[in-house]
Design goal:
The complex is a heterotrimer of chains A (297), B (244) and C (318).
Chain A (H helix, E strand, L loop, with lengths): L5 H18 L8 H18 L7 H23 L8 H29 L7 H20 L11 H24 L4 H5 L13 H19 L6 H27 L1 H29 L15
Chain B lengths: L2 H24 L4 H5 L10 H20 L8 H30 L34 H26 L8 H23 L9 H31 L10
Chain C lengths: L1 H29 L6 H6 L17 H27 L3 H30 L10 H30 L1 H5 L10 H28 L29 H8 L3 H26 L9 H34 L6
Helix pairs in contact in C: 1-5, 1-7, 1-8, 1-9, 3-4, 3-5, 3-7, 4-5, 5-7, 7-9, 9-10
Classes of the chains: A mainly alpha (297), B mainly alpha (244), C mainly alpha (318).
């Protein structure tokens, strides 16, 4: 077999240099700080606004996708130094904190709303703020020499960001399912069925966790590139939107659910294609078949 | 809600989190090297193993908690969860040993102790050179059973105080996911503390790290507990009754 | 005879659990996943260019939690939609459709891993083999489907046990997606902690001496040759299906059997929801039975390890 002689390889490499530029989605403007700030602000605004049931679910879906991309970026930032227990652990930590934070945020926001009216909906951000503190303190515990001593640069900030991203993601996705994060809506049965939106917390938990932990885990390697990893994060956000859209179609009706499914499908197709093309273009080679080259064939 | 009940909930969450952390430290976890019989212990990460056994316990605990129409016995429900997690660990380690012995032909042997501290069997001459032990020897098995019991007890304890109508009175679905969230956060911090592999209570690493691990678990459970207690205090999350 | 039917349903659950965990382990071998995958990831860095499928979605526990929870969610949606009209027959449609959605989602996630990880190995000259890429997707989806449909079935039975068996109070109070999450995490944790040993220790290093731990110097130097030609991940399934897979299935089956068995016996001793129902006795007897089983396990393991030490003897060789 003459699959990859040296000359052909050289030619292939040169050919691949050009399409590489084309497929390289630029996340240069959105460096780690800008992406985080942007996602935090937009996510927080959408989270506050999702108190109002008429807010279309696809707006919340966009917010959730942004927050998940931010979380994936934070996972990449912290996990690249090696955690000792695999990449996924830190993504699960984010949603584990996020669950406690989101439920507290919903409770506080609803309670202030009962007493002080519409200004109370800002209370949802209390959960985010609490979780930022919890995340930061866990980062200090994990990084400090006196405690665990992991010595990962920026772990404190990373964990705080992850806890915030997890809280926002779970808040947004719960409000997609229930129409709002108002606790009475979360706790009372969906109209016409004997099941509450709280029954779907399990799927919300695992979907948001995967949006954050899978991209870096699946792209890990010496030649990992941030742009490619984030493309996958957006693609997974699309899958999440499709599944949550199906749930929303049941709980809120087709007017809310179907646009979310369409949005998810479009995002998924576009970014899956872009990601695959980027991978194929940047790989060492993409032979249709062939033996491994050390066998001399 | 009365402050004394809130205090009990907070204390139970802290105890549950610390027991979860203790459980992770007791499990014989070999991580990826154990899958190649290069390290002693079970061939998976501690977070997944602990969570897997704790949720098995949580399943039984939820069934047992439903025995009582109201006010389930906290101790009995938590013990059911602990025993469930212990059984899960026991079967997993036993069959892992079957595969080590009959599938790969290695003798279970500890890499960190020269002599098994409980059965007094010597270990060193059975060990393959340039490995860190392999399989799940007896002392690790005992340690893993205790670890499963501690972790399962902790997870079920958090669940039952959140679910019980005398305490937080959350709906079961919310109580379970919040308990899972707090438990996983503690298990992951413990996993970072032991840094991948540990053999159990006879491992020198255990004595070295356990204080740090429990301190971290205390701080994290305290913070998560305070946040959950604030959520309970608002009173908007109480179960309406009769609905899933 | 409600109690008999309760035990019958229990045995159905155990059977499903056996199948689920066996196929879970085999699926993780089709596209190399979880702990042994660290060697597949390391191999190109050691100069061992290979044709394994590098399926690094996440640990098995989480990836199965995901597939099963999605399946449970879709199944719950369909059940809510059709149960008012068709009654329990709606499950015949809901469970397979839910499992199909879950396994398709799993396959999509698996499909992004191989290009992602291998394109990150560019400097070690590891190409993306397109036949490996396309050829493994359908086996991944089919193996996953069987595992997920069994887990969804278990969750459905457990959350409707009162109706199915006629014993009041036998149902689990958790909603279907949460039960799927619980069993998904457990099935993955067991699959990665027992089944992986046969794949990681034996099959991945089959060209190394049998009967010793794999030394640190071997790491990354995986066996890349098949019975004829070059090994792909599909060849591993046939090997692991002979020992690692069934043993893994046995683990989960036994766990589910004894977990439910001790609860049901406890319920019977507690008076079975009649006038004499005493929840305290039910719980205590369940705990007691569990501890008895645990002691049997400890004795079995002690005996097994002692047998192996006597039979195999101390390490001989270099």
């Amino acid at each position: 077999m003459t699959v990859t002689p040296a000359v052909e390889e050289e030619e292939k490499k040169e050919e691949e240099e050009k399409p590489k530029e084309k497929f390289e989605f630029s996340f240069d403007y959105f460096n780690e700080s800008r992406l985080g700030l942007f996602a935090l602000i937009v996510g927080a605004i959408i989270a506050v606004a999702s108190f109002f049931p008429p807010l279309p679910a696809f707006v919340k879906g966009i917010g959730a996708m942004l927050v998940i991309v931010w979380g994936a970026d934070s996972v990449r930032k912290t996990a690249r130094y090696g955690l000792g227990t695999g990449v996924p652990s830190i993504g699960v930590l984010a949603v584990g904190f996020g669950l406690a934070g989101a439920i507290t945020g919903m409770a506080i926001g609803s309670e202030i709303y009962h007493y002080f009216g519409i200004i109370g909906i800002l209370g949802i951000l209390a959960g985010v703020a609490f979780m930022a503190v919890v995340g930061y303190v866990s980062g200090v515990l994990a990084n400090n020499e006196k405690f665990i001593g992991m010595k990962i640069p920026g772990l404190e900030r990373g964990m705080a960001e992850l806890a915030m991203a997890g809280t926002l993601a779970i808040t947004l996705e719960s409000s997609i399912v229930a129409g709002t994060w108002y606790s009475a809506a979360i706790m009372s049965p969906i109209k016409g069925y004997d099941v509450t939106p709280a029954a779907f917390f399990a799927v919300i938990f695992i979907l948001s966790g995967f949006g954050m932990l899978q991209p870096y885990n699946s792209c890990l390697g010496a030649d990992e590139r941030r742009g490619r990893t984030l493309l996958m994060a957006i693609e997974i956000g699309g899958i999440n939107c499709i599944i949550l859209g199906a749930v929303a179609t049941m709980s809120l009706g087709a007017v809310q659910g179907v646009p979310l499914i369409v949005l998810g499908a479009i995002v998924w197709v576009v970014y899956y294609r872009a990601y695959m093309k980027a991978c194929m273009a940047e790989a060492y080679g993409t032979p249709g078949t062939g033996l491994i080259k050390t066998l001399g064939g | 809600m009365e402050p004394i009940i809130l205090a009990i909930i907070l204390v139970c969450i802290i105890i549950g989190g610390m027991l979860g952390s203790l459980g992770v430290h007791l499990l014989p976890v070999g991580g990826a090297p154990a899958a190649m019989a290069t390290a002693t212990g079970i061939a998976t990460g501690c977070v997944m193993l602990m969570t897997g056994s704790a949720v098995t316990g949580l399943f039984t605990a939820s069934t047992v908690a439903a025995f009582w129409e109201s006010n389930p016995s906290v101790l009995l429900v938590s013990l059911s969860g602990g025993v469930g997690a212990m059984l899960m660990m026991g079967f997993t380690m036993l069959i892992a040993n079957l595969i080590y012995i009959f599938g790969a032909g290695v003798v279970p042997v500890s890499g960190r102790a020269a002599v098994d501290p409980i059965t007094k069997e010597s270990q060193t001459e059975y060990k393959t050179p340039r490995t860190d032990g392999h399989g799940v020897p007896n002392v690790c098995f005992y340690s893993g059973m205790i670890g499963g019991l501690a972790g399962g007890f902790g997870g079920a304890l958090i669940y039952v105080v959140l679910e019980s109508d005398v305490y937080a009175n959350f709906p079961v679905a919310i109580a379970a996911v919040v308990a899972l969230g707090i438990f996983i956060a503690n298990a992951i911090m413990a996993a970072y503390n032991i840094g991948g592999t540990i053999e159990g209570f006879h491992d020198p690493k255990f004595k070295e790290r356990i204080v740090t691990g429990l301190t971290c678990a205390f701080v994290i459970s305290l913070m998560c507990g305070i946040i959950v207690v604030i959520a309970i205090e608002t009173g908007v999350l109480e179960a309406v009754g009769g609905v899933l | 005879m409600p109690v008999i039917s309760l035990f019958a349903w229990l045995l159905v659950i155990v059977f499903l659990a056996f199948i689920a965990c066996m196929f879970e382990d085999l699926e993780s071998d089709v596209g190399s996943q979880s702990n042994p995958n660290s060697q597949v990831q390391l191999a190109p860095e050691m100069g061992y260019i290979h044709r394994y499928y590098n399926k690094a979605i996440s640990g098995e526990g989480l990836s199965y939690a995901l597939a099963c929870t999605i399946a449970g969610t879709i199944a719950l949606l369909l059940l809510l939609k059709f149960e008012p009209t068709y009654g329990p027959r709606a499950a015949i449609l809901a469970i397979p459709v839910g499992a199909a959605v879950g396994s398709i989602s799993h396959m999509i996630r698996a499909s992004v891993c191989y290009p992602g990880r291998e394109s990150a190995h560019k400097r070690f000259e590891q190409p993306i083999y397109l036949d490996v890429f396309y050829g493994h997707l359908v086996p991944i989806a089919t193996h996953n489907f069987i595992a997920v449909i069994c887990i969804t079935g278990i969750a459905y039975i457990q959350s409707n046990l009162t109706v199915l068996s006629g014993v009041s109070g036998a149902s689990n109070p958790f909603p279907l997606p949460l039960l799927c999450l619980i069993w998904g995490i457990t099935v993955g944790a067991i699959g990665s902690s027992t089944g992986d040993i046969h794949y990681g220790t034996e099959r991945e290093f089959q060209d190394r001496p049998f009967g010793e731990g794999r030394r640190v110097v071997y790491h990354g130097q995986i066996c890349r040759y098949g019975d004829c030609g070059i090994r792909t991940s599909k060849d591993i399934v046939a090997f692991c299906a002979k020992y690692g897979g069934p043993a893994t299935g046995l683990t989960f089956g036994l766990i589910v059997l004894f977990e439910n068995w001790r609860t049901v016996i406890g319920m019977m001793l507690g008076g079975l929801a009649g006038a004499a129902w005493n929840p305290g006795i039910a719980a205590v007897s369940g705990i007691g039975l569990g501890i008895a089983v645990a002691i049997v396990l400890i004795v079995l393991n002690t005996w097994l390890v002692r047998w192996a030490r006597k039979k195999f003897g101390p390490f001989v060789g270099e």
